[in-house]
Structure formats: structure tokens, C-alpha cells
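Subject: for your reference before the review

Hello V.,

The reviewers asked for a structural picture of the protein, and I figured it would be easier to keep everything in one thread rather than splitting it across files. Below is the amino acid sequence we used in the manuscript, unchanged from the supplementary table.
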Amino acid sequence: MSEEVVAADRTIAFVGGLHRSGTTLLARRLAAHPDASGFADTGVPADEGQHLQSVYPAAQRFGGPGRFSFAAEMHLTEDSPLATAANGEQLRADWSRHWDVTRAVLVEKSPPNLLKMRFLQELFPQARFVVVLRHPIATALATQKWSGTRLHELIRHWLVCNETALADLPHLRHATVTHYEQLVEDDDELVRLQRFLGLEPAPLGEPTRQGLNEAYFAQWDRLTASAPRALYRAAIVRRFEARVARFGYSLRHPRGA
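And here is what came back from the structure prediction:
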């Protein structure tokens, strides 16, 4: 899109959240603001910035959706050997090709940003981070369709990734968390996020679709249809419920969370 490289003082909004948790929806809505720019029609999967740079490995190298957070190499902080000024300049150059760098806020979305916020802040001191959470049942079952990973491993991956991000949040100067469920049901949440990025609130520009978790909750309910599956579901609840509750969700009563 551009031959220019983004200025060092420009606000870069990094969106992170597990695959199928609403990162694409949120990034598209933020980038639709007249004072913002995001990636579109890049030719890479979901227009994710991780596939448009040459500094750090993409999630696919470590198993991709539902698996990548199990690799210690995916968690980068300010202490990473990759956190150099030269790599910061390389990322600016890589991504600037796909932004309108004249805009006030530049949006980059990749699920593994959850594990790289401290690293990205070291390279981009003006950066702002938006973390997206979605119910682990919906996230896991939506991911399972094309990952082939067992359900309990997908929920464990959800926890490992989001627990790592939660531990990193106190190290960040500008970060906020949103829930997919709130994002699709409450237009005021987008307004809040626009303001967080320093943008004047602008109309949404596209309709929201509510109730998108319900099909996955129904699928979760069907796990009680046979004794072995019911035992499997009960084991998942027993093992992970307390950790999931820390994020405001429930495996035992998903609709009431």
C-alpha cells in the first residue's frame, strides 16, 4: 500500500486473541475508522501481521491454532534476543507496505500477539494492546473443526495462552481487555476501544451478529448424550473450571457466565 515507513511516534494498535475468538472482527472494525488503517487483501491467512514480517516465527511453525502456546519459543518479552532496534525497524518496514501510514492509528492483528506484547512494546514504545477473550467452549469447538486437536487440549491451550497474557499485562503501559461476547452485543464497547486508541468515536459501519456462541454451547451439551462422553466432559470441567472462572467464564454453566 505504501512506500513510506511508519513514523516512530505513530500509534500501533496490536490486537491479540486466540484463533476464533474475534480478533478478525475487532481488527476490521478498528481499522474501519477514518483515522485508522489495517491490513486487507494482503494474500496471507486472515491478513495477519505475523505472516507479513521477517523477524519472528509465525505460530504455524509451532503447531498453529490450538497448539502454538505450548512452545516456550512463542513467548517473547523485552529480554528476547530479538528485541533489537534493528528488528524494530525491520518490522516497521515490513508492515508499512500494507498500511496507509498517514493515518493516526495503525492496526496489526495476529493471535500470537497474546504472547508477544512485552516484546512488541520494547520495539514500539507508543504501542497499544487490545486482548480479545471469547468463551473457551466456543473458541475450542470452533478451532477443533480444522485443527483435529482433542477438546481438553484446546481448552488447556486457551488457558495457557491467556494466563501468559494476563501475567504480562502489568508490564504494559497501554493495554486493555475486551470480551467477544460484549463486543458483538454492545456498541458502546467499540466506542470504548476507539477512545482507548485515541480515536474519536465513529459509527460501527456493519451490523453485529449476536448469539454466535449458542451453537457451540449446544454441541457442548450433546457431550452428555452417552456415558463415555459425559465422563469426558465432567473430567474437563473438574480439571479446568477454577482456572476458567478467573476470566469470567464457566464450563459448568456456560450460558450463565
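For the response letter, the relevant points are probably these. The mean pLDDT is 93. The two ends are 42 Å apart (CA to CA).

Happy to draft the paragraph if you're swamped.

O.
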